[in-house]
Amino acid sequence: MNLWGPAMFGVVLMMIFSGYPVAFALGGTALIFAGLASLFDLFPLPLLFALPERTFGTMSNQVLLAVPFFIFMGTVLEKSKLAEQLLETIGVLFGRFRGGLAIGVVFVGALLAAATGVVGASVTAMGLISLPVMQRNGYDEKLSLGVIAASGTLGQIIPPSIVLIVLGDQMGVSVGDLFRAALVPGLILTGGYAVYIAGLAIVNKTVAPALPESMRLKGFELLKRVVLSLLPPLALIVVVLGSIFAGVATPTEAGALGAVGAMVLAALNRQLSMKALNAAMEETSRLTIMVVFLLIGSTAFALVFRGLDGDLWIEGLLTGIPGGALGFLIVVNVVVFLLGFFIDFFEIAFIIVPLIVPAALALGVDLTWLGIVLAVNLQTSFLTPPFGFSLFYLRGVTPSTISTQSIYRGVIPFIVIQVVVLAGVVWMAVPK
User: Fold this and answer.
1) Structural domain boundaries enclosing 278
2) pLDDT tens by residue, 292-302
3) Are 330 and 371 in contact (CB under 8 A)?
4) What does the alpha-carbon distance between residue 389 and residue 149 come to, in Å, rounded to a whole number?
5) Going by C-beta distance under 8 Å and a sequence separation of 6 or more, which residues neighbour residue 31?
6) Domain end call among 288, 309, 337
7) Looking at the predicted structure, is the pLDDT value of residue 368 above 60?
8) Same domain, yes or no, for 174 and 225?
């Protein structure tokens, strides 16, 4: 058995877990192993000449151009205070009912998370915006924290999700197909959260009280608030998604439309300041550059790994798992779930996904549903104590008076809902 592939995979994981930048860990490991293997005539160094061409091909990928567009769209909505206005309006609209404010947080969190596509940004924004509001209105601390953390992770699955765009590129499947497949489990998750909150509010009247009469709007004032603050962002999301689903626009074109639309909405609301625009551009540039460096590093790693027959080792390992396709899906879910504690989604997408696709094809697993499985799985991983990314982000924006244990206990019911949905999606991915 050729041990160069397993050794290369093990070394890159150790470097990543040690805290070394992922992009450089991938690229550096690739070059080191290429040099060492060439000394034993196990790797032809001229194969590295294909690296610039592959990198250029990746960089010129039109699908990935949608990533900065959607990130910019979401950050403009956030930095221009439109997301905050959206939350306040939905809170006023549903706040007359017990649990209404928390349900509003779920819906707004889903929209904001889907638009930004970045869990950290979504959870941080929702924590800063919604937590003080729920605290002022007497909401249970654990429920408030759980709602915010869970809502922030919804962007992994709800279109137009950056996660799904990257998965589509790495798996070689249509992004539009992924969006359509993700819509149902995404809505089920959102509805599941809302039903849980409503049920809890009915059983326990003190955990999620209705807004006081003084904070409620009625008649024309309520209508005006809804028309000005709620309908425009929702219309933008509908137009962006509708253009993709109808086949009128590609995800990249729809992303560009969303970016322009977000700026227009901000301008109409007199919120398009240079400060907000610069902040949105800076955030978009930072995240896009991170993705670009990961792409270059993962391209180098994949080239050398395949040159050392590492892909054949992975495929043989995964296809030989007892239980066929179901066993494969269970193992992949466990591995991705554990990796989600330590490394970001983009890193998982560029390192792990290309390695499991050949085995999935060999076992007859539908790649579209495999992508949805991975997206829901990472949601669960990011939300699960003690290492879930969402929990760390929320911990960073909550007052010191709130204990970490409260955050952990608050997310447990939402984790249960996610596990149920994940099981259903896994069943859909198994060949019938």
Assistant:
1) 66-288
2) 888 888 888 88
3) no
4) 10
5) 300, 304
6) 288
7) yes
8) yes
